[in-house]
Amino acid sequence: MLLFFLVTAGVILLDQVTKILALGYLAPAGSYPLWENVLHLTYVENTGAAFGMLKDHRWVFLVISTVALGGMVAYMFWNKTRHPLEVTAVAFIVGGGIGNMIDRLSRGFVVDFVDVKCIPYWKYIFNVADIFVCVGCGLFILYILLFEAKVQKKEASQ
User: What are the backbone angles phi and psi of residue 36, rounded to the nearest 5°?
Assistant: First the structure.
């Protein structure tokens, strides 16, 4: 359980530090190319959900996020197996969710700044929390595919 809390706290810290830097340095500049036409840092205030969908529904997102995050934390408390990949995946998702929730509560919007320009028709700008949520979901799927059947088989034999 300690791993879960440490990883979650690390994700939140990294997310909030990058957003503070974006507010301080990117907001006045607007956009800064790290690699021209490939990857830019572009300041955006997102009042919607992931990738700017459903703008201006802040309270809906807060309620749904709170229920989902509460469910994932409860899952970690009651789940007995706790494989390191599973713990890391859920901690990434929870940390990213809390990071964006902090923004919605404190600022009324989520700070986004990672702007991938090299993918045709990709118009979305995202942040570190979004990256951790997506990677966490991928890791959780990987955990289920690689380890969940083995864990259930082991528990059934005991």
Answer: -50, 130
Based on DSSP, count helices (H) and strands (E) in the chain, helices before strands. 6, 4
pLDDT in tens, 7-55: 999 999 999 999 999 999 998 888 999 998 899 999 999 887 655 555 6
Lookup result for tokens 């009324």? 108
Q: 58-78 and 84-107 helices cross at what angle (nearest 10)?
A: 150
CB neighbourhood size of 67 (10 A): 10
**Nearest CA-CA partner of 68 in 45, 86, 88, 90:** 90
Kindly list the catalytic residues: 112, 130
* Cross-strand partners of 31: 42
Strand partners, 44: 112
Q: What digits encode the pLDDT tens for the residues 55-75?
A: 666 677 788 888 999 999 998
Q: What is the mean pLDDT of residues 86-101?
A: 96
User: What is the DSSP code (8-state) at residue 144?
Assistant: I
Residue that the structure tokens 């830097």 belong to: 21
Query: What is the enclosing helix (H) or strand (E) of 111?
Result: strand 110-116
Whole-number Å distance between alpha carbons of 152 and 155:
5
